Amino acid sequence: MTSTTSIPSNDRPVLVTGGAGFIGSHLVERLLREGRRVTVVDDLSTGSLQNLEPVRGNPGLTFIESTVSACPGLGEIIAGAGCIYHLAAAVGVELVVNSPIHVLQTNLRETEILLETAAPHGVPLLLTSTSEVYGKSQKEAFSEDDDLLIGPPHQSRWSYACSKLMDEFLALAFATEKGMPVTIVRLFNTVGPRQTGRYGMVLPRFIAAALAGRPLQVYGDGLQSRCFCHVGDTVEALVRLQGNPASRGRVFNIGGTEEITILDLARAVVAMLDSRSEIQFIPYSQAYAPGFDDMRRRKPVVERLFECTGFKPRTPLSEIIRLTAAAVKPASGV
């Protein structure tokens, strides 16, 4: 069931869970720039107050250090909110592989509590999911109505995909049964300033290595391909979808469509940064636990996003690398 809820009111605060994270902090900055009041709930397990440093003095920002489930006054916050962006989640391949219990509990429990609390108030909620839900499909490009092929449960990587897919099922169930205005987005490799390589994110890991003159470690044969999306484009899509009632009860891909292999990405980073770093191939068996299963391709179809919002990600990969590296250089001292 698609809700006919109107565009979220601009005179009520926006709730952003995970707002101190990489994507969340850029979204918060955008909303504050537009004159919105923003309440951030983030337990700082993967986010950082440093990400919010550019807006820490903004009187429209309220920050609460907490998980969603332990947030004091969550019901009152939601009742007074104009809309909700739910970005709080356990992310990153290394975290998924090394802490599967934390991943499952964070992604399932927190979303369930948020939906249950928000449903009686009819507040529009945008849920961020992931391209990982497409699983082991061999299609050249993924569209929102494709069948999904998830790997076996003994491979911990799939716990993340399944937890986010269950978030989607739960959100759509609330939309159908409770009439809750829900929008779901599947993010494809969002990158840009403030992202770190701490949890295995490939582009900041490559850039940091290239700037420091260390080898760029490419896992496997490097021929697996991805499409990277600048965080500014992702935020633009999130804001447009949340502001459009036609998005309610639907799933949207958000991602770039410029495909590149990981090996060519490493080469591009080395060339653009004029680095002398070498490229080093690391077997998956050394990088991750035995049985790790990587996907060969991850390319989104974004026509549904464009039809709904008139926008699709457009920053070229060369510019994405330049912008991301420019944000890293001051901290690296290079």
Report on this model:
With 334 residues, the protein is of the alpha/beta class. The protein has a domain at 14-188 and 230-255 and 300-309: Rossmann fold, CATH 3.40.50. Helices cover 38% and strands 16% of the residues. It has a 7-stranded parallel sheet with strand order 3-2-1-4-5-6-11, with helices on both faces. A two-stranded parallel ribbon has the order 7-10.
What fraction of residues sit in β-strands?
Answer: 15-25%
On the 0 to 100 scale, the average pLDDT is 90
Question: According to CATH, what is the class of the domain at 14-188 and 230-255 and 300-309?
Answer: Alpha Beta
CATH architecture heading of the domain at 14-188 and 230-255 and 300-309: 3-Layer(aba) Sandwich
Strand order, sheet with most strands: 3-2-1-4-5-6-11
Element order: H for helix, E for strand: EHEEHEHHEHEEHEEEHEEHEHHH
Structural class label: alpha/beta
CATH topology of the domain at 14-188 and 230-255 and 300-309: Rossmann fold
The name of the CATH superfamily of the domain at 14-188 and 230-255 and 300-309 reads NAD(P)-binding Rossmann-like Domain
Major pleated sheet: 7 strands, parallel
Helix content: 25-40%
Distance between the termini: 53 Å
